[in-house]
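Subject: F-box domain-containing protein structure
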Amino acid sequence: MPLSFTGLPDDILIQICIRLDPKDLISVIQTCRVLHAFAFSDYVWHHIHHILPVDLSSSRDGHLSSLSASEIQAATIRALNLDVNWRRPVSRIKRMDKIQPSATAVIMQPLGPNWLVTSNRTRGGIVDISVWRLGSHSKENGRLIPSSRVIHIKPEKAFTFCAAFQKEGGDVAIITVLGAVEGGATVTKRGHLTIYQVNLKGHETNESSLGIPYIMQTWRIQRNAILYYAQISGPVVAAAFVPSKATGEPRRLQILLANIQTKTTVAINSPGLSLFDITKMRFKLYSPYIVITGIHKRRIIAYVRKLPNTIFSSKQIQMDDESLPENWAASIVDYETGPMLSSLADIHISPEPIYATPLTTFTLLVTYSPYASAEGGKVEVYRFPVDTSALNLKFSDWRSSLDFLTPANVTLEPMCLGKTGLRAVWLSHQWNTDDFKLMKASFPNAVNAEAVVAPFHAPTLALPFEPHTCHSLYFDEAAGKVWVGVHTGDIFVFQF
């Protein structure tokens, strides 16, 4: 007599369940009580493979293992519903909130559901950094507590910043600020990387049980260089810089690594870095790895490298401007695409910080926006698989996973790609008619998949601002939140 499905040995059932797609596993749970009790275990839900981005903001450390089966199932159902809603030609916006910082946000960086870091430029051209506690309802009386600025930083001659939790879901935020050092015309150009550790839980007071956040520590690193781009992953901060040289001397791109915990600094001067166009080089930290991408001779190149062991040393090691630079610990893989369509191209990667996400695939967008009335533009999506157990792999003439055309005389800026590269939002500007539209897209990760591009909102929905006033965008892909900063200084948060 053949066995029924529920009569299979437990270890076989477990292997079947953890290999199911999350959507199929939810269907299996609903078939009978036996399978519901069996498949609804922490072990099964901790080992299933999630294709869609899942919001882990309720996890204390950003790992699925710290959530129960019921919590993971609820997060999975939200992710599936969000995906269906996002793919619709007309997506439903479930909620819209408004934040009034009173100054135009040049850059926005949400940290989880409760915090926001912004930068704004003052009249004198100085950039201020603000940390905001987002509005919430009081646990005591249910009243809405409005958003409020809890920390205000005025760094010296700052021009950009990035922020992340030191550990996802934790109480400590890392804010890195890049700027210049005061000096006269005859002084060698010096830049600074200032790292702030902020305790968001703060000190409790009699007036408020929410606590008053404070800056725990400030670490300032100065170099005879121009620093212009930074990323954070755990305790490691990476910043791109170009050393100040005498007139006529070649300038070579380098990367400065800093460990917040040990105060160790390392400069990377790999020969491969000199290939990149400085203005179009980007990188992403997946500690202990880094992905570096950019343009070289009208081709896109992407390198995956392992960070040097020195940066993780328990002993403090500091390198000054005269120290011999180090190289990477290992070369994992090199990618080179075929020839680009045009030199008028921009590269976009996700601004979302990486916490516990393993490095398995790296996604980037390339936008071509020619300023010619008869020539349309194009967007290409590249996905680069990564096997961190391999060494010295090389691929050439790598092709885009999917692409789509854009109308002539249209630019897509600002553009924001989600962390997994499956979704994106942007502001479309038609220069002939000066027409602005917010757009959204899905980029399915499947063979012969096509991009699904649609307006950001239904035509019947009146936005509380004119699209042309949009100054900055941020996209929390897993949570389905889009942040729009406008010229009036207001920030609108759309929940899909």
